[in-house]
Amino acid sequence: MNYQRIMIFGLPGSGKSTFAVHLAHQLKLPLHHLDKHYYRENWVERDKEEFLNFQQDLVNQERWLIDGNAIRSLEMRYSRADLVLYFCTSRPLCFGRLIKRRFFKNKSIQDRAEGCDERLPPHLIKYMWTFDRRVQPLLERLHEIYPDVPFYKIRTTQDLREILKLF
């Protein structure tokens, strides 16, 4: 299948941004990291309405790969996607990657606004640790409303290898 609108979301540290960079390059899709647009310089949050309007403009385009969570607007992206990838690797693995990213940022992944250096605040760890529990009811509802949208959970490296066979 020729996927033109791909949504990637999941636990912080699960590998979604790294995979998004790889996949966008492979498929020659415009890549949009939501954190880069949600935050202004030095981790200042953008106006929520402005951010929602920005996302609406993105999903109205014919081709995109959007990487990021923004739970409030998850349905906006889900409803327009022709492929959804949910990265939900183990929490200890995600935590380890968050620590690694804090000290050894991959400079080829430009997923942050200017002045938003990597950090590891306690609320990010809590957000990561409880993410799947909080998003599960919403996902169940989205599966019911949009049953034709292909949805894949990425839990392991093997799952990732299987997903790559789609392309």
Tell me the CATH architecture.
Answer: 3-Layer(aba) Sandwich
Order of helices and strands: EHEHEEHEHEHHEH
Please report the total strand number as a whole number.
Answer: 7
The outline comes out as: globular
Name the CATH class. Alpha Beta
CATH topology: Rossmann fold
Mean pLDDT: 86
Q: Please tell me how large the radius of gyration is.
A: 15 Å
Task: State the CATH superfamily name.
Answer: P-loop containing nucleotide triphosphate hydrolases
User: Numbering strands along the chain, what is their spatial order in the largest sheet?
Assistant: 2-5-1-6-7
Beta-strand portion reads 15-25%
**Biggest sheet character:** 5 strands, parallel
The secondary-structure class comes to alpha/beta
CA-CA gap between termini: 7 Å
Number of helices: 7
Low-confidence stretches: none
Oligomer: single chain
| Domain unit count | 1
Question: Share of helix among residues?
Answer: 40-55%
Explain the overall architecture.
This protein has 167 residues and is an alpha/beta fold. It has one domain (5-164): 3-Layer(aba) Sandwich (Rossmann fold). The chain is built from 7 helices and 7 strands. The chain has helices spanning 16-27, 34-38, 48-59, 74-80, 91-103, 122-145, 157-164; strands at residues 5-10, 31-33, 39-40, 44-45, 64-67, 83-87, 151-154. The strands form 2 sheets. The chain has a 5-stranded parallel β-sheet, sandwiched between helices. It has a two-stranded antiparallel ribbon with strand order 3-4. Strand 3 (39-40) and strand 4 form a beta hairpin. It starts with a strand and ends with a helix.
